[in-house]
Amino acid sequence: MKISTKKRTDVIISEIVLIVVSFIFVLPLILAFTMSLQPPQAVFSFPPKILPVAIHLQNYANAFKTVPFDRLFLNSAIVAIMITLGKLITGTLAGYAFANFNFFGKNFAFSFLFATLFLPAELIMIVPLFALMAKFGWVNTYWALTIPFMASATNTFLLRQHFLMIPKELEDSARIDGAGPMAYFIKILLPLSKSMIGGVSIINFIYAWNFYLWPLIITMEDRMKTVQVGVKMLIDAEGASNWGVIMAGTIAAVIPTLILFFILQPLFVKSLTRSGIKG
């Protein structure tokens, strides 16, 4: 009885701590949403209000009027979807090769790939990458925004570790039934990896949606910029005088990633909690 009471107390304390920490992390987003719905004179009121006193949707209209967010949202959606699909294709195939095949230099290749995770790629590669894109004539194109980021060492590592946890007996059984490597990969391995693929998809989409530095450098025309650059354009246009409009643009930029997360949340949680497959 004492043990059960202690466990119950530990669970309650843990949940309280998690609720408090979650509230601390969510509070800035709540304040930003509140500011986006307030008229200019109410934005700087003290103390700050967690809930808006009056609904002022004109901030959103002004944000979309100041910056062409409709075009920027389209650009970000195209870039994020293409990068996510590209990373999933290359990550699953590379992870499958490292987990299920033996070839010369396999361990060295994987060690070298893993070592690249410790390199600040955006700082090291940004100048030579820009020069390469300019040489290809890809400046101000979707190719420059997507092609260099369609492969990821992180994806390969995560999916390789996941594939290693799937029993080898499944592959042997598939081989006995006449299935080749690609048939096993497509018909058995991928369906068993839905939760992991879902979790990786969320991470990749949010990463690509939040691109800022590279789109800022590689796109010279406003029609090719992404939504995160659009938020900076909005800040430059409004200055520090109209934070209601700035927060409206910021909230609009965050909404797509929140919607995706809530839709795929069950798969994301499974990808974090799943430790293996019982044979």
Describe this structure in words.
By secondary structure, this protein is mainly α. The protein has 14 helices and no strands. It has helices at 2-36, 40-43, 58-66, 69-100, 106-115, 121-136, 142-146, 153-164, 168-176, 181-192, 194-209, 213-218, 227-238, 243-273. α3 packs across α14 (243-273) and α4 crosses α8. The two termini are 35 Å apart.
The main sheet comes to: none
End-to-end distance, in Å? 35 Å
Instruction: Count every beta strand, where a strand is a DSSP E run of 2 or more residues.
Output: 0
Rg estimate, integer Å: 23 Å
Q: State the share of residues found in helices, binned by percent.
A: over 70%
Strand coverage percent: under 5%
Basic shape: globular
Mean pLDDT: 86
Low-confidence stretches: 275-279
Order of helices and strands: HHHHHHHHHHHHHH
Number of helices: 14
Question: Which structural class best describes the helix and strand composition?
Answer: mainly alpha
Mind sketching the topology for me?
Blueprint: H1 2-36, H2 40-43, H3 58-66, H4 69-100, H5 106-115, H6 121-136, H7 142-146, H8 153-164, H9 168-176, H10 181-192, H11 194-209, H12 213-218, H13 227-238, H14 243-273
Helix pairs in contact: 1-14, 3-14, 4-8, 4-11, 11-14, 13-14
